[in-house]
Structure formats: C-alpha cells, structure tokens
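Q: Start with the shorter request: fold the first protein.
A: Done. Sequence, then structure:
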Amino acid sequence: MTANSNTPDPSTRQPDWPAPAVAWYAVGVLFLAYTVSIADRFILSLLIEPIKQDLNLSDTKVSLLHGFAFAIFFSVMGIPIARLADRFSRRMIIAAGVTVWSLMTAACGIANGYWQLFAARVGVGVGEAALSPPAYSMVADLFPPQKLGRALSFYTTGAYIGAGMVFIIGGMVLQAAMSTPEITLPVVGTIRSWQAAFFIVGVPGLAVALLMFTVPEPVRRFQANAAFSGDVQDPIPLRQVNEYMRQRWRVYGAHIFGFSFLAVIFNAIVAWTPAYLTRSFDLSIGQTGPAVGVLVLVFATAGIIVGGWLADRLVIRGYTDGAMRVGVIAGLGCIPFALLSLTVTSVTGILAMYGPLLFFSSFGFGAAAAALQQATPNRLRALVSAIYLFILNLIALGLGPTITASITDFVFRDDLAVGRSIACVAIVSGILSAFILGRGLKHFRAQVAAQAAN
C-alpha cells in the first residue's frame, strides 16, 4: 500500500456544501411552490356544490375532476420528469411546472362545460408532476445527510399548510366572491363566481415561478453503490429497478399498498368534508373552509411530525422496522374514529372525529419516506421513490375521492349520505393498511438487515 493511498482522488472529491442561508432560501422557495401546488389541487373541494349546480353533475363526475383527471397524468408524468431532472436544470423544470399548473388552474375558470374542466384539471396534474421529483433531488444536493431530514420535513409540511390555508383563506375569499352570481374580469369578461375562484388561486403561482429563477442550481452529488457497476452518473434502466423491486415484492408491495390505503383516507376526508358540512348542516363555504382548514393545518401537520418522531425513537430502541410499525399504528388509529363518526349528529361532533382521523391518516407519511430509504440502495432510491409515488397517487388521488362519491351515488343513493361514505372508506382503508403493513414487517426487517450487510 502506498503512503498516499488514503488521499482522495481530486476527480472524485465532492464540492463543499452551499452556505446554510443559500440552502434554506432554496428550500423556502420550494416550500412556497409546494404550498401553492396543494392549494391549486384542493380548491375544487370548496367548489363542489356550485360546480354541481351549474354543470348539472353527479358526485361521481365531480370526483373524477378532483381525483382521476388530476391523478392519472400527475402519476404517469412523475417517472419521465424524474429522468429529466437527473439530466437537466431542476430549477428550470420546476419553474416550467409551476407556470403550467398555475395557468391551467386559471384555465379552469374559463371552462364552460364538464370536459373543458376535465382537460384543465389534467393540465394541473401534468404541471404539478414537475415539482417533487426535481425538488427532492435539489434538496439532497443542498444539505449534508445529517441535516437532510429536517430540510425534507420542512418541504413536506408545505402540503399540509397549503391544504389548510386554501380552506381557511380560500373559504373566506370565496364567500365574498360568491356574494354576487357573476363577476367581470379584464380580458376574460363575465364569469360565474366559482370560475373566478380558480383565477384567484391560480394566478399567484406565476410569482412563485419567477422566484425559482432566484434559486441557484446546486452541484449534483453522486454516490456509488457496490451492488451496481459502471459510471455512477449513468442512469439505471427502469427495467433493472422493476426487477429489483419484483424480487422483493413482499417488502415493496407491503410498503406501497399499505401506505397508499392510508392516503386514501386523507384524500377522501379532504375532498368531501366541505360538501358534507354544506349538505348536512347547511354551512356556507365561508364556514366550511376555515373549519376544514384548521383541522388539516393542526391535526395533519401534527400527525406527520409525531409519526416521524416515533419512527426515529423506535429505530433508536432497536426496532429496525419502526417506520413500518408507525404505518400499522396509523391504520389502526383511523378505525375507531371513523366508526364513531357514524354516531355523531352535530358539526362539533363531526369535526371532533375528523381531527383525529386526519392526524392518523397523516401519521405514517414521514415514516413512509424513511422506510423506503432504509430498504433501497442509494442508486435506486430516486426511481423507487418515483414508482412508489406513481402507485400511491393513482390509488389515493385517483380512487379515494371517486370511491367515496360512488358509494354515495350507487350504494346509498343519497347526496346527504356522503358522511357515511367517508366513514366506510376510512374503515375499510384503515383495516387494509394495517393488515398489509403488518404482513410486511418481517420481510422489511430482513431487507434492512441485508442492506446493512452490503
């Protein structure tokens, strides 16, 4: 062995990490982008009743606007955009995505029919697919490993803060806007008040797109993994990733489908609670929006923080499957509150049940990301994460709102039964989530041990 054998090769030396102020500024802008994306995604929940009335739609048709139209392209586009983010400027991809989804949200405001609105929602999904894959990659290149968890947690809370704020602020603004049936806007002309709401929410996103140009593109960092050969910068073929996951289907199947059913509960509640409160208790948008917003802001945000903390504590105490155990707890925790929601008959009672439901349906998602990293080699993590998000979003966004609406339309055949539909979806999904994740615990432990041995 030569005397200088431990000296790093200059060609492989990693660059210094960005200054903390630069890194946190970038995460702050990404947080704003995530907040705006969630606001644009969920604004439809507040507008279900006026859209149904004006366009003469069933709950199922509205749910397809909320879920399927958005989710199918949001999910499908995630993987190719993740590939682009590995090769091209991530901040430019995000800026383009923010611009697209903001314009398409505004385009919902000029839709005069169901299929025009459907097409605009597809566009929102395509634009939003350009956010998280490049954002995760950027954040990983901005922070050293010991600070990455905090940075990603801050970014992730944008989802819950965005959802909460769109209901709180959006509900009050929309109540004022809807005090007149029609509104005249420059260039656009005269439109219905619910159409104006899409402009109010969509246009501010263009300012966030401009802010992305102030974020520096971080230097890319690569890590080799002994399980794979070749230049560490070469993208791994998707078929190789699929084969890796197929061979470990008991691990990845349990993780992906277990957490997906947990996400179904969150999306069913957020999509249909405003309509439930309006129909059953005759509340206005100005009342339902803030009520639901506070629940999401407080309980969902607390859920993801406490769940992540518990997962870390379990791992520290020697439970290598701690992140998956948190998912089991989350699924089981949803069941009693969903059952109890069937027995209450007041607004206060419903909100008292839905708060814990939002807490537990969000409880597992800090842990879900951690579990995926534990089980997966470094060089496969980006694509495995993209596949996970692809399936999760198809199930949670595509099926959650639609299954709830279908139960209302075809099982109960009563618009006032939407609360019972939410409860049914939460009970069944909670059971499935806990069962699937529980079945995967021993396989997950074995996979983590195998990873540690490599």
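Q: Next, the second protein, separately.
A: Sequence, then structure:
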Amino acid sequence: MKETADGLIALYSLETHPEGGFFRESYRAGGKTGTERGERNFSTAIYFLLKEGQVSRLHRIKADEVWHFYAGGPLTVAGILPDGRVEETVLGRDTAAGQKFQYAVPAGRWFGAYPNPGTGFSFVGCTVAPGFEFADFEMGDRGKLLKEFPAAKKIIEKLTKGIK
C-alpha cells in the first residue's frame, strides 16, 4: 500500500503546527536537566509532515535539533548562518545525489524547511536535546530578518510568508 500524506496524518494523529505543516510529539524523556532557561526534559521527538506547497517557517529554538528523513520526497532544510550566508541541506533517500538521512540544526540558528519541487509530501522526525518547550521557540519576523541578513532575502521571503 502506498503511503500518502493524509494516510500518515491519520495514522500518527498529526495536528497542525504553528510554523506550518503537521506534527505530533512522539517522545519526551522522563529525566530532566537544568538549563539557563530552567529545567528541561533530556530530549523530545516529534513526527513532522509537510505537504507540497507548505513550509516550515523560519524560526529558531534554544537547543540543537536533529532532523531525520522517513518517507515521501526530499525536503530542504535551510538555515541562515551567523555571517548571513544560507546553508541548505536536502534530506531524502537519494544518497548518490547528496541527500542526507539526518541533519543537525545548531541551537539558536534561524531555519525552516520545504518539500522540494515535485514532492507531494515529506515526512520527517525532529529530535531536540535538551527537550523542546514552546517557551524556547521564536518565530522569525520578516522585516527584522531582512534587516539583519539582507543577503538571505530570497529564503527569508520564501519561509516567512504570512508572517509580518
């Protein structure tokens, strides 16, 4: 049986995510660790799905986030480096074409993602350590990002649609 976006959304009881797409937390470690932001679980994990035309809007979190490719077509994770350059990593099955099964986004980096052209959907997982809390999440502001990173204008505009 062929996997479909709607089938995976139903199977994993995914809900809409504030940054775009669909998600469901699948794991939250029972143990906790102290951070400068307070106590956090050791790690958390989610399933995350983007349909064709959807994006994960530019955002940043205060912990490292590892993306894992599961199903569907390739997905590009785009991050803005501190010097303003854009780094793009394609997650997918075609390792001969340079696609990766995993990619780690460092804490504090502005990043987002989108399914590659012709991809009906991309189904991935994201693991965060120390564990994710929405208090550590910041959605990107298009105007502020364009002022800070003018060389990244193209990706900022692509991944901040609907954000003022």
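Q: Describe the second briefly.
A: Residues 5-158 form a domain with the Jelly Rolls fold (CATH 2.60.120.10). The mean pLDDT is 95.
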